[in-house]
Amino acid sequence: MKLQHALGGLENLGPVNLEPRVFVQDWEKRIFGIHTVMMAESAHLADALPKYAMATLPSTFKDTWTWASLRTGAEGMQPFEYFKFRYYEKWLMGISQFFVDKGYITADELARLTAHYRTQPDAPLPERPSEPIKRQVVDYLLHGDSSLRPLPHAPRFTAGQMVRVADPAAADHTRLPGYLRNKKGTVWEVYPGAFEYFCSTGPDGLEGPMPVYRIAFDARDIWGPDLCEPNTTIYADLFEVYLQSPTPEEEKTP
């Protein structure tokens, strides 16, 4: 995760927003609904553990859209832009850019329609009811999907083993917190099965199902003895691609 998504140990970022409401404005509910429908029509559900009739779903949406897709759009924002906009504004920007990038709508069409609804806020939105899609959304909300998949290979590491976190090439989107790069830890748990993120992160190697581990870190090894409470352990769930075997010298170091 880049700066705006991994703030561990950083100071002087201003007060924390304690807004308790999930939706501050009504339009935010619509953005959440759009995201939910996109997830319910996502192409990856053809291989989901619950059986969805994706082949016969009357939808023109043919791409994969998951929480990973939403995070990718947000993390691709310029950091100062990210901090400037509110939560669902980031969602709106990420979803809009996705539809432009995938060719469902052009940037010019989006700008024209945006101007239309800004000048005519009461203008009716397109209404295209579809009973099969409605049932699909309800089924997805009830049954969802799991990223759990069969193991492609035996886990490389075992509980109790020392590991070093990798330092892969920077990517626009990653599931590796920056403050854990190059840090030593101990495998606390090997989760059963493999897990898929449904989103390739490119140069840092996260793609396809793989084992996931819970790694324990001594907080002093992450932030130093003067910046953390004593006897503090930090746990992180990490994909196997982010872990390496320690050097012989590291294995000798307590």
What does this structure look like?
The structure is a single chain. With 254 residues, the protein is of the alpha+beta class. It is built from eight helices and seven strands. It has helices at residues 26-40, 67-75, 79-84, 87-101, 107-119, 131-143, 219-223, 248-252; strands spanning 148-149, 162-165, 184-190, 194-195, 212-218, 233-239, 243-244. The strands form two sheets. A five-stranded antiparallel beta sheet has the order 6-5-3-2-7. A two-stranded antiparallel ribbon has the order 1-4. Helix 1 crosses helix 4 (87-101) and helix 1 (26-40) crosses helix 6 (131-143). The longest helix is centred in the N-terminal third of the chain and has 15 residues, at 26-40. The two termini are 29 Å apart. The model has no long low-confidence stretch (mean pLDDT 88).
Give the % helix: 25-40%
Between the first and last Cα atoms, what is the distance in angstroms? Answer: 29 Å
**What is the overall pLDDT average?**
88
**Structural class of the helix and strand makeup?**
alpha+beta
Low-confidence stretches: none
Q: What is the H-and-E element order?
A: HHHHHHEEEEEHEEH
Number of strands: 7
Descriptors for this entry?
single chain, 254 residues, two-stranded antiparallel ribbon, 7 strands, globular, alpha+beta, five-stranded antiparallel β-sheet, 8 helices
